[in-house]
Known about the structure:
Belongs to the WD repeat DDB2/WDR76 family. By secondary structure, the chain is α+β, with helices and mostly antiparallel strands. 25% of the residues lie in helices and 29% in strands. The longest helix is centred in the first third of the chain and has 33 residues, at 36-68.
Amino acid sequence: MQNLTDASDDEPVEKRARKTRSKLAKERLDKEEMSPSITDERKVLRKRACATKARKQNEAIMKENKETCDSPINKEEELDLPPPGLSEYEIMIQQNIAAKKKFLDSLEIFKTKGEVDALKSQPVKKPTYRGIAKQQKSPEPVVIRRSLRQQNLTPDGLNLPLPSEKDIARADAAADIISHPRPPPGPAPLLDYYKSHNKEESKNFINDMKRLSVSGGDSVWSGNIKSVLQTMKKMKITEDLVAKVVPQRTFAVKIHPTIDKALVLVGGKWGELGIWDVERDDATSGAYYFTSHSRPINCITVDPWKPEYIYTTSYDGSLRRTNLMAGIVQQVYSYVDEEIYSKYISWHSHVDENTILVSASHGQIIHVDLRAEAKATRQYFVHNQKSVKVVTVHPTRVEYFATASRDGNVCLWDMRHHRKNIPVTSFSHGRNVTGLEFSPLTGNFLISTCMDNHLRFISCDLTNITVERKIQHNNQTGRWLTTFRAHYVPCREDLIVVGSLMQPRRVEVWGCDGELKHEFMGECLGSVSSVTALHPTQPILAGCNSSGKAHVFK
């Protein structure tokens, strides 16, 4: 004992205290194990305390819900309350679930989902089709046996040498000419050029054109610029103002100056002159086309002195006149050449009542006298025999005309002094110029459209031409779209109209100060309007796309 006491004396006081406490705790546990009734009683008391606490918390939550809600608690909310007898942790989980549900209900997600589902259940409205009858697709051709010659093989079965790319292009062009021969020169009835099936309706349509009034009126475009822009903002497009006028791609558009109706003239890919009476209600929605040419109609004009005459220039080398009142089509000029697929005419411009200038390939401007039985009275050689894209005559000094070529040059010419084929003045754009037009009132300005992605306002004083303003504009229409050609708003020299490649689709109005003044847009305009035209006096705009559809704002 002494030894143990001595050993315990050597231990620290704290260590001895810990041992004493652990010994007492062990003795207490042993006593509890020996008396299970005491332990069970404590457990029961503990459970009762937890249940009482949970019940009080549930009552507090119910009281809080009654105070915060405007309406009484419904059965679903009562079911969401935590049941009695849960632990504190389980109650906390239930409270978190209820809080999240309350937050989601405040967002009204399920209500929005129900509205979306209701919209999906509604039948989808198909776009309406208006215009000429759809072309029926021909069935797949039957495979025919081909000879060795047609397979480009020798009698021994060897391949013949391939033709050059130039020969292939020439053969393809010749095949197109053969498959689309130029119509007879006429004169011939307009109905003879109608190729669709509903002949009776087309006959009635032509008869209605004979009663067409050509009287003009005061122009809505001649006011101040603010009133003109307000007029443009009121012009809208609807489904009834969209129709397919020609079967394929459009190359030109013009609006007839009559005030009796909106009459849109469209030039098609294979020589179709499309005429659309916008307000007409018949099987084709007032759209009819007449194949008076065999190649694209690139330019359409209405005779300023005789509005019943429609002049069309085509790549097939002919200039034709359609008399709407008489229902007659007649060829007034033909660019005769053996290699017609490599030479063409592209544009025309009126000099006076009896004279028209026609631009041609290989750098020619042809002076056509309408009284000379479809013959050229004079020729002007310009642009070093490069293709002339556009010709435009000065509105007040008709002895002057301007040309634009593929070489990028814009030249001003004087008919009276053209023996040496030297222009009065010129300006180089650097890239292909696709559009050129004199300002309609004074001719003091030109607007040009160039493939270098610019629109240019050019000052012209008949001795010199200078660029006044250059506007950045995306003109890269590509292979499948007709090139843009900006033109002046009628009776104005400070506003121009041009198509656009921007999304959503639109037609743009630019000012001579370089600012974008207005954009014609609408849900029914879903494609690029490459070519556009305005009515000379009425608030009507027409734009045509690459599938033959015309879109009208009015």
